[in-house]
Amino acid sequence: MTTDESTTVHEDMHLAPPTDGPMPVDTTQLTSELPDDEQAEESVERQRDELREFVSGLSGDDIKSGSWFTKLLAHALHTYTVKVDWQYFQDKYQGVPPDAIVDQRIKMATRYAAIEGGLSASAYTAAIVATLGSLGGASPATVPAAVATMMVDVAFMTNLQIRLAYDIAVLYQVPLNLDDPDDLWKLIRVAFTIRGGEVVRESAIKAVPAFVRPLLKRFYSGPVLAAAKGLPVVGKYLLQRNVIKIGIPLVGIPIAVVLNRYTTKITGRHARSVFRNDARVIELARSISGATRHPRLVLWVSWLVVMADDKVSDDEALLLRHLVTFVRDEHQVVDDRLAKIIDLDMEEVWRRIDTETGDLTDIVDAAHHVAAVDGDINDAEREVLRALQDRCADTGVPALGDTTTPGSSS
To answer: What angle do CA 177, 19, 274 make, to 5 degrees?
Structure first.
C-alpha cells in the first residue's frame, strides 16, 4: 500500500492542532467536513478493501503467532506517519484548539468503528474458534475464508485505534519517535490499554451505558502485557480479545458493532488523558527552562526535589527528560556530572547554591513546580522545599510565610 493509499480513508477523520496564540474558533469548520452516512460507509469499505489485500498475504502461522501485528505496523503506521504530522494538521485546520479537535476526532473514529463492526459482524460465528485453533502453515492459501474475513475486522480496528492514539499525540504536540522502541510501546500501550489497564478500564467503563459494561469488562480482561514480550505477543493478545464478539446480539445490535464503537471511544478518551497530560508536563519543562537564570543549578535542584521521596513518578521522569533537553537547546548547558549521579548528596546541591549570588527566586519557583508536577506535594518534598527556601534566603528569596518582596522595605 502506498503512502497516499494508507491515508485515504483516515484523511476524512483528520482534525487539527492549535496555533500558538488564542484565535476565534469557528466550530462549523469541524462539523462541515464530517462525512454523511453514505460517505462514511464508502470510506470504510475502501479501507476494508485495502486491508483485504493485506490479509490475503498472511499465512496461518502469521495469524496464529501474532506476527500479523508486526507486519501491519510496517504496512500502514510507518508510511502513514511520514505524511501525517503536526504541520499536516496545522495546514488543514489552522487556528482550531486541540481539545475541540480531539473531541471531534474521537466521535468520528467511533462512528467509523461502529460502521465497520456492522459489516464484519457476520464473520463472528462459533465455528471460528475451532478454526483459529487449527490454523497453521506458511502459505496464505491455507487460511480459511472465514478467518480472513475476521482478520479484516481485527486489522481495521487495530489501524483505526492506533492511528487515533497517534493523531491525538500529534495534536497535543507530544513527540513520538516510532523508531524508538520505548515510544512505539507507549503508543501501543495507550491505543490498546494493555498495560495498567485496570485503572483505565475501571474509569472508562463507567462512562458507557450499563448494558455494555459486562461486555467491555470481558473484553479487557486478561494478562497485563509487558513491552519485553514483543510485538507478536501483542498480536496474539489482540486477536484473542476479538473472540468475545462471538455471541448473541445485544437488543438486536451485533456485538461487533457495540464493542468496536465503545472500545474506540475508550481508546480515544484514554489517549486524550495521557497525551494531554504529557503536553502539560512538557510545557512546564519548557517554562522552567525559559524562566531560569541558573540553568545548570535548576537541573540539580529539580533532581533533588524529585528524589525527596526516593521514587520517580512517570510525570517526574517526563519532566526531567524534557527539562534536560530544553536546557541543552536554550542555554547550551549539558551537565555530564549530573548525568552520572547514582546517589545524590544534598550537601553537594547546597554547596552549588552557596556559590551563587543574587536572586534565586527562579530556582525556588522551579522547585515548587517540580514538586507539584505529579499531584499534591508530599511531606518529603515539602521538607526539601523548606530547606531549599532557607538556603536561598540569604540571596534575596523571601522565607516561607514572608510576603515581603525581595529588595523592598517594610
So the answer is: 45
pLDDT tens, position by position, 227-267:
556 889 889 888 888 777 766 555 556 788 888 998 999 99
Query: Which amino acid appears at position 308 of this protein?
Result: A
CA distance 109 to 115: 10
Q: What integer pLDDT is reported at residue 119 of this predicted model?
A: 86
Helix (H) or strand (E) holding 278: helix 255-291
In whole angstroms, what separates CA 35 from the centre of its chain?
26
Query: How much of the chain is in helix, strand and coil states, percent to nearest 5?
Result: 70, 0, 30
Backbone angles phi, psi at 26, to 5 degrees: -100, 100
Look at residues 200, 47, 30 and name the one whose alpha carbon lies nearest to residue 112.
47
Phi, psi for 253 (deg, rounded to 5)? -100, 130
Cβ atoms of residues 298 and 292 within 8 Å: yes
Could you tell me the three cell numbers for 40?
A: 462514511
**Whether 125 contacts 146, CB under 8 Å:** yes
Check if the beta carbon of residue 171 is closer than 8 Å to that of residue 15. Answer: yes
Residue 367 near residue 305, CB atoms below 8 Å: yes
Q: b/e for 37-47, b at 16 or more Cβ within 10 A?
A: eeebbebbeeb
What burial class does residue 15 get, using C-beta atoms within 10 Å of its C-beta: 0-12 exposed, 13-18 middle, 19+ buried? buried
Cβ distance 114 to 129 under 8 Å? no
Indicate if the alpha-carbon torsion angle 373, 379, 381, 382 is positive or negative.
Answer: positive
Q: How many CB atoms are closer than 10 A to CB 281?
A: 22
Contact 155, 72 (CB under 8 A): yes
Q: Could you say which residues of the chain have pLDDT below 50?
A: 1-28, 196-199, 397, 399-410
